[in-house]
Amino acid sequence: RSRSQALEQEYPDIAGYLQLMRNIHIQTVAISVTDKRLPIGKFIPRLGMARLAFGKPFGISEVVGEREFVDKDSREKRNKLIMDKIMYNISDLLPESYRGYYAKRGPEMI
Predict the structure, then answer these.
(1) What is the mean pLDDT of the chain?
(2) Is the dihedral of CA 87, 92, 94, 96 positive or negative?
């Protein structure tokens, strides 16, 4: 949850951990409209529905292939590729007003 109520840029270091488990599949999930159910600074939730959406699962190897990333720069690039894939998939599941940093894509993510 962010104070801006939109997706913010990810932390690519998390992807290094995911890369250790090469054969896993990632299921992206987006939960939205929770800001209207429990606004920041409030303690009692408002009644109503939140929105839950599931993306198509994908494997880490689909993003990075079978390449080996040996030096620090290439590992950082790999981590960014993985996290961008995750975050853009989540962004696709959200209403446009919640997409934030991931509302626009570079040519490599189209």
Answers:
(1) 78
(2) positive
Round to whole Å and give the CA distance between 79 and 49: 35
Can you name the residues that pair with 30 across neighbouring β-strands? 53
Cα–Cα distance measured from residue 98 to residue 72, given in angstroms and rounded to the nearest whole number: 33
The residue written with tokens 């290094």 in the block is: 16
Does the pTM surpass 0.85? The reply is: no
Q: Which residue has the tokens 């446009």?
A: 96
HEC-encoded secondary structure of the chain: CCCCCCCCCCCCHHHHHHHHCCCCEECCEEEECHHHHCCCCCCCCCCCCCEEEECCCEEHHHHHCCCCCCCHHHHHHHHHHHHHHHHHHHHHHCCHHHCHHHHCCCHHHC
pLDDT value of residue 46 = 85
Of residues 73 and 59, more confidence is placed in: 59
